[in-house]
Amino acid sequence: MTAHPMLIAGEWRSAPADASTFQPSNPSTGELLPDTYPVASSAEIDALLDAGLSASQTLAETDPTAIAAFLEAYADGIAAATDELAALASTETGLPVKPRLEVVEIPRTTGQLRQAAAAARAGDWKQPVIDTANNLRSQLEPLGKPVLVIGPNNFPFAFNGIAGGDFAAAIATGHAVIAKAHPAHPGTSKRLAEIALAATATAGVPTATIQLYYRSSHAEGHRMASDPRLGAIGFTGSEGAGRKIKAAADAVGKPAYFELSSVNPVAFLPGALAEKAADLATEFSGSCLLGTGQFCTNPGLLLTIAGADTETFLTTAAANFNAAPSGVMLVPSLPGELDASVKALVADGAELMGRGTQPTEPGFRAQPALLRVSGATFLGDPKAFQREMFGPGALVVVAADADELAAVAEHLESSLTASFYSASDGSDDALYDRLVPIIAAKAGRLLNDKMPTGVAVSPAMVHGGPFPAGGHPGFTAVGIPASLRRFGALRCYDNVRAGRLPATLQDKNPNGVIWRLIDGTWTQADVAS
Amino acid sequence: MTAHPMLIAGEWRSAPADASTFQPSNPSTGELLPDTYPVASSAEIDALLDAGLSASQTLAETDPTAIAAFLEAYADGIAAATDELAALASTETGLPVKPRLEVVEIPRTTGQLRQAAAAARAGDWKQPVIDTANNLRSQLEPLGKPVLVIGPNNFPFAFNGIAGGDFAAAIATGHAVIAKAHPAHPGTSKRLAEIALAATATAGVPTATIQLYYRSSHAEGHRMASDPRLGAIGFTGSEGAGRKIKAAADAVGKPAYFELSSVNPVAFLPGALAEKAADLATEFSGSCLLGTGQFCTNPGLLLTIAGADTETFLTTAAANFNAAPSGVMLVPSLPGELDASVKALVADGAELMGRGTQPTEPGFRAQPALLRVSGATFLGDPKAFQREMFGPGALVVVAADADELAAVAEHLESSLTASFYSASDGSDDALYDRLVPIIAAKAGRLLNDKMPTGVAVSPAMVHGGPFPAGGHPGFTAVGIPASLRRFGALRCYDNVRAGRLPATLQDKNPNGVIWRLIDGTWTQADVAS
Predict the structure, then answer these.
(1) DSSP H stretches of helix in A29-158
(2) ipTM value of the model?
């Protein structure tokens, strides 16, 4: 069978007959799917960059209402194709059609696209600032170059390079996107690109606003990351690949945002466990096992203090893990990687407390795993005990006392989230107040009394944190309009004649709704004349 | 004579007797000054980092009014010592006491410190966002670690690591600063640190809020940049040193901001020259020669189209340059570097149009230089003709026509500023509209009808741009509160109990003046109950 074409410069282009190709698998069966996809050549990468640059220059001058119309037409197209897309993605990822793909992830994705459209139309992401006394006016503006978006394996829609959060943010701020499909779900990505291409025509934006390839050599990927035609990068994926892309982008000072790894510590303070240890164990187990644990914010490291209630918690949690069926994982290597992590943790001194059913069905299946380790053992090699177990695995650190727990907290690396369960009667408050200052600066989001797996697309959400959890501690990958600001260049107009100013910096508020900081006051009004 | 001590952990510590030392010079005489300063050892760097980390942890929990009080007490102390400081800085830099140091730079510096104090007190830099429906609240917060500030040679006060814009921004956001004095003005920096130390006592902030060293080995500098105890870096200086510091910080994902090099293109469009070529030549000459041209925003590359008015402009400008006296430069190497650049440009095909008086007095004196080159020659090697001539030097590109000028614009590298002079009657507007989209994305600030040398400390100012002019295109080094946001970490409070929220995220507006984005509306009001 001929390899599927790539979307380059508005056309579906087939790779040369001698191009390298690859085949995705069906994780539920473990079998290769019949479709083949090409590895992009150097010439194809150049064509993507050229077309993306040209489209970005056009988009930087395009009325945001046309860009919003594109995002909304695309969201409509995805919604109309929900059944087909969910079936296709389920075949490529092993994720269930319902509720995960149809009820949760596709609506989340179209919702993000519509929020991004609204943000493009309102323009608030630009944060215009006007100082009338000095006639200085500044705002965030498009980079004028395309954004490369490399999505992860675990969200075929909501974080897909051609449809997810980074995509929506880059488009809404006036950039063309060069999307790299994750090679585990290339067919889903291609179908999304077809729908997006149709939406470009509906909205009248350049066809090269969206382009798609599936894979390149590492060398071509690094070349692309440092190419002057590229404006910025959004990358969600493995730490090894991400660090190399980051180095290439950093060397030329290109903005690049990463989400690489996170163990998401959850502290169960003694008073909380005294109140409801078993309930909390079940809440934790459900969160950790959801979607075979394949979430960036999966709770992977639990912090407790030794005691009878902690043993109750562990007993219940272990029983839940022991009873858990094996789960399908996204790509062939993941179950083995989880097994290897479990073995390594045991070799380092952790104890296996619960292990899900041994898989008997075909497919890329993993056994959930719950481990425990003493605080003292953890402190002997804090780095080893913070290895990310991607999937349904977690390590419970049982500290001897509050001092040892504080010492463990001191050694935590960066994460996307940090969660604290504490007693309702205030009995944990002193310990909370001691631990939070140690841990809070290491994570983008601090939670009370809830699991970190839910990531609401809401303006105040932060999905990020210090490197390598995030790429820059000042930004978030989820939450609109904050996530859009990652792709903005701050530009000042100094004494620029009135008729030459961008609409959002002119005296008159261009749409009546954009918030502007005029002489120190945030307002939707015009500049007073 | 014993080497001057460093300010480490609140104490003036002398280096060991066998430490390497250096002596600054008096640029006006060319002679070494009698004072010696130590090169910091590895142990001293560690002591700076330890004390800075501890102080930063305290400052992150300190009431911003105490931090504001420190900044204001420090500004008061500088103002009170103006005469002494200006005399000392003049000896070390060759810059005139009046008007430059006493009338311009010291008041600018105290003004920045006071603006930063006001920003700390108001808290707007945090940009709090509250979504009541989801009970999500987020804001920018201190990193919890110290900021290393490395200042340049050309502003002994306004960009000094111990007193300038990066210093003020880092302190106002709740960080301790580890300042590296520029080795060309260590005495000025030490005197500033003494005044700052006294102000820490007045305001009751940790004494290690401010620390000072003078020099380290390159290896120690790179180790410091990647050390986990350090939160962020602000660097203004040479591109070679900056790129190495950047690589060390990038490898560990540490936020680092740079201002490295900029030629600041100024386009004189034909209609503007037709109106007043000679006046514009004098305006340009004054800007380029001011302060011996030692400004980051010095106009170093002029863009023109061939014609009689351009020749008038060039004739007048050349006469101004020919009549210019030699000027004192900051460090011994600079006059020679300027000479070498002039020779290289001539060798590449530029023509020397004006050259200031040959120096006869002692000191580090440079001859101003004005050169011209055709657009065609420029296009033969655009990179070579954009070498930064730090000091009183500029290259005028004379393009054959508008198309050639547009081609020149396409090849411009990044700069802090881009300026356009155009006719008052609209006759240049078509050319302006053609050139600006090419050039604007390459600079942080676009100017009309004025020279770029003035950089107002105003909220809408942008002093930055794409790398290597700036370090990240989304930020500015000048302008409050925007410059403060560089040092913020975005943190979200998800379902966090009301009593545990930071004051600025609680329902009640803590000071009645901080602007917060509550459910999509910027307001100074409380959250509606």
Answers:
(1) 42-60, 64-80, 82-93, 106-122
(2) 0.97
